[in-house]
Design a protein that fits this description.
A two-stranded antiparallel sheet has the order 1-4. With 716 residues, it is mainly alpha-helical. Helices cover 62% and strands 3% of the residues. The chain contains 27 helices and six strands. It is globular and about 90 Å long. The N and C termini lie far apart (73 Å).
């Protein structure tokens, strides 16, 4: 039989490996900084917040983007470029596309690192980057897919191995998620509004947000598990049939699960129920994958004790099992009522990020770098120390946060014998400071391990030489395939990559379409409320400042129908309240109290209180972990954007009258002057042109359209 010689491209693998190490260290360092900011929240030099660019609200999204898209993203591409060539027995389709992909992705990361601290953000979790960067992401993702499918089509191996199935599903699903969630209306080069509003935006965002976890942090890493676990153990995958069930059940069920992030909210109950049902069912394929991975080590368990790479991989797969057990549990209303908005969810997310993604990435790096540099790992002893530091770091990180989450929920819901709330929200914050300190210690241990790995791999690289073009040989692909007796039916699909991609696309589209189409087309799902009016121009500007400063990171605007919440905040939230919110501001974490009723009832505070609170939060709320915003008191509000913002909102369906944009700044100035006069009566002299005036206007508006003493009139 004729044999063809060819060369694997290891240079692109090396580049993505280096980027993985670099951005991992950077992203986790930023994570440690924000953890410490909650322990030392004052402005530098008394604390660790550096207004405005390095305040908690601005760099927390920087941390999540750096870890997800920079560290894990580069880790995905490192593993895919290495494994795909060998599974297809072909060099990557195009060296040029590989280079465009690498440098384009790094430029996107740099753009995120610059824009997010500057407050340039779309304000949607895991999708904060503004529209020009979103377009760049889509283009580079297409380059990646083009290169991947080009390689698959020129392969010399007829069947597609299970890892490639997960790579294909990752490509098509992430493309759909990113494009649908990123529909936005630009008003300038670096400012846009989400095309969706309120409930609809919440559904789209968490359909995207949950499935960004599913199809960026999970499915590609499952592909890496299916390749590198057998390689490291020198054992075949435990069960081919189980891998088929794992793959198709997982990608079908995952896409439905987004609404479980919105339980007890204003999302229609039928959508919440769908999210619960499919989220709970996810435990079965997820654990099927975990079992398939761990049982691949059958007959090799005695090696795990001595092989540090297998240790990393075993902990990674175990963390995957833990996270995918906890996720379905958190989708049940009983558990969700306790955990949602608390640090419990933060712990759950980090079991996945630090345990599943982090440990598997470290294992792959330790396995891969020595091979492409034709040498031995510099220090196995140091790698073992890294393993134990990382493992201890995860435990010191997660256990205090689980405890903190349960404590938070218990304190929020606790009543005295007289039927009054037992604790103020601020008491829960101050009580948790020691837990936040323990979390920071865990993060520091984990980061020290990353630095230790970096040193170890640098020394490894220096002792070896990159095999940039690795020689290989294989028989050419047989054009005609003769099926063997007893061959599994799935082999037919594996021989047809384009059809496989289309089938994967159809499978993942079903759940999203069934959940979203009725929400958008059936008006009764989102009943409007006659008393809810559009924001005034000043309030609209203030809302944009709220988004810019990342206030949604710590504050929710969604009062759930629990007695503890209605007693603390006021009437529970209705779907019709949010029809003019582009994007929605329901939040996902309460480090601070809910603000949905901040402008009314017992929660309403004077303009002077808010001014002093923005200037120095601890002076008004002793023990607060909120950063100060002194720049709001000195920076002038840019009213040159008002007209464009009003026009954009009208395009999006907000009922501003035609021509209103021409007089908007006059109304803005009048309202700002009134607030400035209120502050002057409170012995605070500040120009009505300052940004703080607009933010006060927005905060004082929250909840005003819902009169607590009356039942809102619903327009069906």
């Amino acid at each position: 039989m004729q044999v063809e010689k060819f060369y694997y491209d290891n240079r692109i693998v090396k580049n993505f490996a280096y980027a993985t190490i670099l951005w991992g260290a950077v992203g986790m360092l930023v994570g440690l900084i924000i953890a410490l900011q909650l322990v030392f929240p004052a402005q530098f030099p008394n604390g660790l917040n550096f207004a405005p660019w390095l305040n908690f609200g601005r760099i927390r999204p920087l941390h999540t983007n750096a870890v997800i898209f920079a560290f894990v993203g580069n880790g995905i591409f490192m593993g895919v470029y290495y494994s795909l060539q060998r599974l297809c027995k072909a060099r990557m389709f195009s060296d040029v596309l590989s280079k465009i992909h690498f440098w384009g992705w790094q430029l996107i990361i740099v753009a995120a690192a610059v824009t997010l601290p500057l407050g340039i953000t779309a304000g949607k979790e895991y999708a904060e980057l503004e529209w020009p960067i979103d377009i760049a992401i889509a283009l580079i993702w297409v380059v990646f897919g083009w290169n991947m499918f080009g390689t698959i089509l020129k392969r010399r191996e007829k069947h597609l191995y299970v890892a490639i199935w997960f790579y294909i599903a990752t490509f098509v699903t992430v493309a759909v998620l990113h494009i649908v969630n990123s529909f936005e209306l630009p008003i300038s080069f670096l400012k846009s509004y989400s095309w969706y509003a309120g409930v609809q935006d919440a559904l789209v965002q968490w359909w995207y947000g949950h499935n960004a976890v599913a199809f960026f942090l999970t499915t590609p890493y499952l592909g890496l598990m299916y390749y590198f676990m057998p390689k490291a153990a020198n054992r075949p995958v435990y069960s081919y049939r189980l891998s088929i069930i794992h793959f198709w059940a997982l990608i079908f069920l995952y896409i439905w699960a987004g609404p479980h992030h919105l339980l007890y909210t204003a999302l229609p109950n039928w959508a919440q129920s769908l999210g619960i049902v499919f989220s709970f069912m996810l435990i079965f394929p997820s654990w099927g994958g975990m079992i398939n991975g761990l049982l691949t080590l059958r007959g090799a368990w005695d090696r795990v004790r001595d092989d540090v790479i297998l240790k990393f991989l075993v902990v990674a797969v175990t963390a995957y099992g833990m996270a995918t057990f906890e996720g379905p549990m958190l989708s049940l209303k009983t558990f969700n009522a306790v955990a949602h908005f608390t640090d419990w969810v933060v712990a759950h997310v980090h079991i996945g990020a630090l345990g599943w993604n982090g440990m598997l990435t470290f294992g792959v790096l330790y396995w891969l770098i020595p091979r492409i540099f034709q040498t031995e790992l510099y220090s196995k002893k140091m790698a073992n120390r890294h393993f134990w530091l990382a493992t201890l770091g995860i435990l010191f990180w997660a256990i205090p946060m689980y405890w903190a989450g349960f404590t938070q929920s218990s304190m929020w819901k606790d009543f005295t014998a007289a039927g009054q709330l037992k604790y103020s929200f601020l008491e829960t914050v101050t009580y948790l400071r020691p837990f936040y300190a323990m979390r920071a210690l865990g993060g520091a241990l984990y980061l020290v391990g990353v630095f230790m790995m970096t040193y170890n791999l640098v020394k490894t690289v220096k002792t070896g030489k990159l095999l940039a073009n690795e020689e290989a040989e294989a028989a050419p692909l047989q054009k005609e395939y003769v099926a063997h007796g007893g061959e599994h039916w799935h082999r037919v699909i594996e021989r047809k990559p384009i059809q496989f991609m289309i089938l994967s696309l159809v499978v993942i589209l079903i759940g999203g379409a069934i959940e979203m189409i009725p929400t958008f087309l059936i008006k009764s799902n989102i009943p409007t409320i006659s008393s809810v009016k559009p924001y005034t121009p000043l309030e609209l500007q203030g809302r944009d400042i709220y988004v810019r400063e990342g206030c949604y990171v710590c504050h929710s605007q969604m009062v759930r129908p629990f007695r503890s919440e209605t007693e603390r905040y006021g009437e529970y939230s209705k779907a019709g309240e949010f029809v003019y919110d582009h994007p929605f501001q329901w939040g996902s974490k309460r480090t601070g109290p809910d603000l949905g009723r901040e402008g009314i009832g017992n929660l309403k505070k004077s303009d002077g209180w808010h001014f002093r609170h923005f200037r120095e939060p601890q002076s008004m709320s002793e023990g607060s972990v909120m950063p100060a915003y002194p720049h709001l008191l000195t920076d002038d509000l840019d009213i040159g954007t008002t007209e464009a913002k009003i026009n954009a909102m009208r395009t999006l369906g907000v009922p501003y009258e035609k021509g209103y944009e021409k007089q908007a700044n006059q109304e803005l100035a009048a309202q700002a002057t009134m607030i400035s006069a209120n502050l002057l009566s409170d012995s605070i002299k500040v120009s009505p042109k300052k940004e703080v005036i607009a933010l006060i206007a927005y905060i004082q508006r929250l909840g005003v359209d819902i009169n607590n003493n009356k039942t809102p009139v619903l327009n069906k």
